Model the fold of this input.
Amino acid sequence: MSFIPPDAATDRLFNNADSFAMVFDRTWKQLRGGNNSKVSQGDHLETVLAAMADHPFLISSPDMARQVAGFRIRLLELD
Done:
């Protein structure tokens, strides 16, 4: 059995909150670097969600996906 580390980039997306959270964290950090650190947290959230528009969980449960995103921001103290 092979082990995939949690931070490994993968193209496998699942219709659940865990898959969404992993992709959200990675996308937030990737898009937040550089000049984007001056963008408000709310505007950055909208940019991240737009970049993840094809994620199955965001498509099927947009309200819950936003709740998960807010939780991840608070939990990880993302700026």
In short: Residues 17-32+39-76 form one domain. Residues 1-5 have pLDDT under 50 and may be disordered.
